[in-house]
Amino acid sequence: MAYATDTSTQGSNGFFAGMIASLRERNARRRLYRETLRELGHLSNRELSDLGLHRSMIRRIAYQAAYEA
């Protein structure tokens, strides 16, 4: 007598696809954070003042741009 078994991995494919999508999103957010931090950090105090910012605000603004958008 022969038995047939279903060995598809349909359920785990969705899990791994979701995990990969999550990692890509996290990397994109981290990249945006670092880029914003770098760009604002290169501005002079005068340029920051013209934008209504203080140098101590740079990290918070970069975080908000990347993670709260």
UniProtKB/TrEMBL annotation:
Mind telling me which InterPro entries this protein's record contains? Answer: YjiS-like
Q: Where is the YjiS-like domain?
A: 23-59
Organism domain of life: Bacteria
User: What's this protein's name?
Assistant: YjiS-like domain-containing protein
